[in-house]
Amino acid sequence: MSQQGCDIGLIGLGTMGRNFVLNLADHGFSVAVYNRTAEKTKDFMENEVGPRPIQPGYDLPEFIGLLRRPRAIILLVAAGEPVDAVLRELLPLLTPGDLIIDGGNSHFTDTNRRGRFLAGRQLDFMGLGISGGEAGARHGPSLMPGGSREGYDRVLPMLEAAAAQVKGEPCVTYLGPRSAGHYVKMVHNGIEYGLMELIVETYDLFKRGLGLTPAELAPIYDRWNREELNSFLVEITAKIFTRQDDRTGRPLIDLILDKAKQKGTGMWTSWDAMDLQVGTPTIDAAVVMREMSGFKEERQIASLVLAGPSPAFTGDREGAIDRMKNALYASMIATYAQGLALLRKASATYGYGLDLEAVARIWRGGCIIRAALLEDIRTAFKNKADLPNLLLDPRLGQEFLSRAADLREVVQMAAALGLPAPGLMATLSYFDAYRSAELPANLIQAQRDFFGAHTYERLDAPGAFHTEWEEE
């Protein structure tokens, strides 16, 4: 710590907070820390800090006194009311020019509200999306900051040092004003939901359809990860299938209850996509399936009374595995396409000024959705910054088209076996809808005009029209 005080402060010594502090300190920055529970601060200082330049504050006034002015403070506490509670406690201790950085998964509207409130008190505020989990926080996450450019520039050296590095480039960049950072992180998580759902659908088809065991699945996903499907999520999927349960010696995956939880960011993505009228059906399906997984007891009852086809695959297994790989890759392209199309619309609507090439760049390392595919996505936006959809990029569009037949085969297989694959199915429908010059929405509009006099447009004349569909 310099004589003037610590470079930055951090409040919240949970898993992410502790690891991010250690990351910053290992890069030479002095950090003051505070946690509402003093015992946690003491344990951290005694057992994890060692000789690093980290100073504890056991109450907020002591913590604030450790910081160099103007102060910069990161909050890594649970989203929602806990953030507001910390801000209320901090306010009397802060002075104009201090910078507060919310590093949690806050809803972007909360970030806008807090930013306006703090600006009225001459305090700067930044919403900082952090992705990468425990390991990312410790060794290099993807960082998604939004707020004032001046606030970002103040902490730029620290963020660039702590972020993951890919090809010599830090996985952090200034994204835009107000809640731009938290919005990008929200959509990142929505894409994450979609990719995870697609992967688990291939797992289910392999397990219940082809009858493959975890020991047989592990090398398949490991091979995929060394090919075009190279990504963090495919990598960890392969590793999960190799883990044996310490208590029983059985594959651990076979002992995990099939109820998936969620913290809400996927739902937020779907909600705002609907508000902005952007289709994100793969992400929507992923959210629905997490909700469906929660009805375990009801599903067990339904399985006894609602009959379906036998999920026993009798065809060419090796061919099915290859088709599954192609279907997953095509669906991954479409899932990124949906998320980035939402970012494009949100940027225009909310005035973020997002650079989607930069977004793809900072997602290449550290974060949960990092994948080799992001290099091609970055190139697509570098070649055409206003690209409306990744499927219209010549390279990525062709990559999808070359695998579309396999995606259709896999969807047909899932339907024939009676195995749920809504992510894959929704992706195929998204593609078919997007490539359709005509959709049956003309009948929807006729129906709306019939029962509600909502009018319709015509192909052969401008203006709005209404018909009395039932003549007296």
Please provide a brief summary of the model.
The protein is α/β, with parallel strands linked by helices and 472 residues long. Helices cover 55% and strands 8% of the residues.
Task: Label this structure with key terms.
two-stranded antiparallel ribbon; seven-stranded mixed β-sheet; 2 domains; Rossmann fold; alpha/beta; single chain; N-(1-d-carboxylethyl)-l-norvaline Dehydrogenase, domain 2; 472 residues; globular
Description of the structure:
The protein is α/β, with parallel strands linked by helices and 472 residues long. It folds into two domains: 8-178, Rossmann fold (3-Layer(aba) Sandwich), CATH 3.40.50; 185-434, N-(1-d-carboxylethyl)-l-norvaline Dehydrogenase, domain 2 (Orthogonal Bundle), CATH 1.10.1040. Helix content is 55%, strand content 8%. The chain is built from 19 helices and nine strands. It has helices spanning 15-26, 38-49, 60-65, 81-90, 108-119, 133-139, 149-162, 180-209, 214-225, 232-242, 265-275, 281-293, 296-305, 317-350, 356-362, 373-383, 394-417, 422-434, 441-452; strands at residues 8-11, 31-34, 54-56, 72-75, 99-102, 124-131, 142-147, 165-166, 169-170. The strands form two sheets. Strands 3-2-1-4-5-6-7 form a seven-stranded mixed beta sheet, with helices on both faces. Helix 8 packs across helix 12 and helix 14 crosses helix 17. The longest helix is centred in the last third of the chain and has 34 residues, at 317-350. The chain is globular and about 75 Å long. The chain starts with 7 loop residues before the first strand and ends in a 20-residue tail after the last helix. The mean pLDDT is 96.
